[in-house]
């Protein structure tokens, strides 16, 4: 239906010096005004002087990306004076209507599609005054109101194959604007997706890729796939023979090399575990097992190579006097807390008397790995196995202490000298 946007109140502007003052339309006259195409912009203008000096920028229409202008006496309108006069300007791109620069229909409609400013020059002299009244823009809107006439001038476009929209201003699916982000009314050309998509973003041309491809034109294989994406077939990109969807490339000899193995993996095809990790990703030695970090409890030199077995995870280079499959206990002959992250080096040498302490398999004196208590030979006592039981002697034999075998009637007690074994005899008794 026909609608007339109006502003009937009189407006006044002044200029100081030679500056030019304009009347600027309010927001109700801006935005999408395409229904005003080929219709009239009207107003009444009066000057505070008997005549004025027009210019090429008296009437200005501004859009998002372009603007057009006209002098006040264009389209057979009168020159402004101190008398109120009516003005009417047709919104059409035809050169006979005088809008400059001359635009195509699409370009003219793109201004009306997002009209950002309407400016009417109000002063035409130094220190001039202007008065504007009865501003009106003929337009239309969807709907029916009693007494409203139909807006039969609004175009009902039959769009060419590549275009859609009420004014054929947008691209149809499978087409994009040229240039990219050219906005409505720019030329539409087919999407270029190398056969891997039927549609693309109409503004940017970015394809909505399928067939494991990526890129603005689906010209690349997606991560985890390899091949020649521009061949144009659904099978251009094949899965990489690499774990966890890591990427790969195909060399000149057609061999495939993984380019970004997951953490903990190594090898041309990520087929082995990296140093410091263990597992069996290809099942070469048994069931397939993902690579994971070796657990050596921080008791290895992180800058060293070969700290653990890459298949079993057994730690091979324990430091801080630690030992065990995971460097989780003290070496034989040492004691302390091998797992305390704040006390590295806590495994200390056991203070065992060598002759009185049992040997471990590697020849070191045996002691408890946590308490440091030594494993004494027969009849040897003390935390460090450093003395014989009462009634025994000769700890230095290396076989345990021997019994003193003192005669209880001739000696004071069953003890004897700890080294020589001499009993403590009563007076007058030898032996």
Looking at CATH, which topology of the domain at 2-140 would you report? Jelly Rolls
Low-confidence stretches: 1-5
Pairing-aware structural class of the strands and helices? mainly beta
Query: Which CATH architecture of the domain at 2-140 would you pick?
Result: Sandwich
CATH superfamily of the domain at 2-140: Galactose-binding lectin
Task: Classify the helix fraction into a percent range.
Answer: under 10%
Strand content: 25-35%
Basic shape: elongated
What is the name of the CATH class of the domain at 2-140? Mainly Beta
Rg estimate, integer Å: 49 Å
Main sheet: strands, sense, barrel: 5 strands, antiparallel
Number of strands: 33
Number of helices: 1
Question: What is the CA–CA distance across the termini?
Answer: 141 Å
Chain-averaged pLDDT: 89
Question: Care to describe what's here?
Answer:
The chain is mainly beta. Among the domains are: 139 residues, Galactose-binding lectin (Jelly Rolls), CATH 2.60.120.430; 84 residues, Laminin (Ribbon); 54 residues, Laminin, CATH 2.10.25.10. The protein is built from 1 helix and 33 strands. The longest helix has 9 residues. The protein is elongated.
Q: Which features would summarize this protein structure in a list?
A:
disordered N terminus; 431 residues; Laminin; 1 helix; four-stranded antiparallel sheet; five-stranded antiparallel sheet; elongated; mainly beta; Jelly Rolls
